[in-house]
Amino acid sequence: MTRLGLTIFAGFALAAAALSTPALAHGDDGGDHGAPPAGSAAPAAPRIVAESSDLELVAIAKGHDLTIYLDRRATNEPVDGAKIEVMGEGIPQTVAKEIGDGTYEIEGEWLDAPGSKPLTFTVAVDGTMDLLAGVLVIPDEAEDHGGTTSVWSTLVSRPELWLLALALVVGGFVLGFAFRPARREDPAPLSEAQSAPQQASAPKALKNAAGIVLAAAFVASVLPWPAIAHEGHDHGAEAAPALPAGTAPTKLPTGEVFMPKSTQRLLEVRTQPAAPEKAQAASELVGTIIADPAHEGRVQAPMDGQIELAQGQVSFVGKEVEAGDVLAHLAPAMPVYERGTLAQVTADVEGKLRIAEQKLARLERISGDYIPQREIDDTKTEIESLRQQKRVLEPKNEERLELKAPVSGIISLATVRAGQVVSARDTLFEIVDPKRIWIEAIGIPGTDDESQISAAAALDAEGHKIPLTFIGRAPALRQQALPLLFRVDDAHASLTIGGTIKVLVQHGAPVEGFIVPDAAIVRAGNGLPQVWVKVAPERFAPRPVRVAPLDGERVVVTSGLQKADRVVIRAAELINQVR
User: Fold this and answer.
1) Which residues neighbour 465 within 8 Å (Cβ) at sequence distance 6 or greater?
2) 208 — pLDDT class (breaks 50, 70, 90)
3) Which of 74, 496, 562, 566 has the lowest tally of Cβ within 10 angstroms?
4) Hey, which residues does 320 pair with through a beta bridge?
């Protein structure tokens, strides 16, 4: 290996060692050089986060603009119409310009200068004044190029590296001499010409040893080294990533979610302070929607017959009718043998009627002292009776029975068509009033007593809350429980007769917990319920909770929350989806 090759090779080895050498703990203070806590690293965008008892402020610097987000601390609602004045050492007092939705802006050339800038924000809103302070750290772009100097200074200040290099050099020389070519023993004296190569072998061996040392140093430098710490030092785990910046929500390694204020504005994130209350928890039952018996009607065929149109049409499903409206006509059906008997009886009646009429005509011609009036009156009565029999014995296929609606409402069932032949007791129409419906729910122990039920509500598939009034319970068991009957006070269009629905019944002793909207409860990755709690103006943490239903719109959190926790009550599902 030539001198130039050795020099180049040594330069590469030292460069690789400098770049791959890990930080070594030092000092005797017994400190912990582990990773900083999650979120403690400064974000890429310089910002100030300040909070008071009522307000929270986030100011983000970009160029020579400072954007200020002002919100209510308890509810996370943007504060509009506020007057914000910014001042600091060497910074002129400036009034922020409102740009809408709780966002304000300040322009200043002082934002272009790097360094730490303590700022004080004076906020005047709703007749009150508040002071918020923080330090805005604007980094110097030139600092990004100082990494190489710090690495070389670390190498110079580390005696461990010099000891390691010395050990490599000694080991290289030992290996170089150990593997040099062996000399043959020759008792004969050597001439000067023969001894010259042997004298030159020593420098060659030194070169080989130096090559081995450099090769060992290069291999050691490129291999991954574990962190070397002094006694009493703990370097901990790898450093956590810095808090994200910009407008992209990100889930942190701790499970928390970083969500910038701009995104919170877009999603309309709202919070509610948790306050303990006592409430009567509810039990969830499965109910069936039934019609009010007093407003349900059924039309059946009184005899065999054939359906005919009423007023030119047959009533159909969904048609609104009033009590007494004619739904259809029924022409009674008559067998053939009955038709023959009817014709014979009709002919007999008609013959007797003609004889009676002729008798009456004769009696009226010779009336006077010879014919008593009583006989004439009896003949007239007989004639009237025969005429009545004739009307009764008219062909039955000419009669039409009117099928009328027994109640007012909407036709829910119609199984007839024009010309259809029906049998006696066949159900032809069913009529219900969709505004008069009940719900029958299967009860559980503790809900069978009317005095124990304080309130009840139904939840349809679309999430509508429908108030219910408890009517009573059935005396017979069904599914090993007593059916409970509820009246729907304000029927919703989504309720259909025969459908199933969720029923929440409040009963039993009150329990203490935190009442939150049902939208605040989301599902964690393991399927368990959880809520999101705001722990900082731009950070949200998950909290596993135990809940009990309340009234269909709210739930009672019995464990998992603490007083004054700011629970996310709007956009919790969107925060839960951040990855």
Assistant:
1) 457, 458, 459, 551, 552, 553
2) low
3) 562
4) 410
φ, ψ of residue 27 in degrees (nearest 5): 90, 165
CB 559 within 8 A of CB 546: yes
* 456 Cβ neighbours under 8 A, 6+ residues apart: 467, 468, 469, 470, 486, 503, 504, 505, 506
278 burial level (CB within 10 Å; 0-12, 13-18, 19+): exposed
**CB–CB of 458/468 below 8 Å?**
yes
Q: How far apart are CA 330 and CA 421, in angstroms?
A: 9
pLDDT tens per residue, range 32-89: 444 444 444 444 588 899 999 999 999 999 888 999 999 999 999 999 999 999 998 8
φ, ψ for residue 341 (rounded to 5)?
A: -60, -40
Q: Which contacts of 151-159 are long-range, i.e. CB under 8 A and separated by 24 or more positions? A: 151/18, 151/19, 151/21, 152/18, 154/21, 154/23, 155/17, 155/18, 155/21, 158/21, 158/24
Show Cβ contacts of residue 11 under 8 Å, excluding neighbours closer than 6 positions: none
The number of angstroms, rounded, from the C-alpha of 142 to the middle of its chain's C-alpha atoms is 47
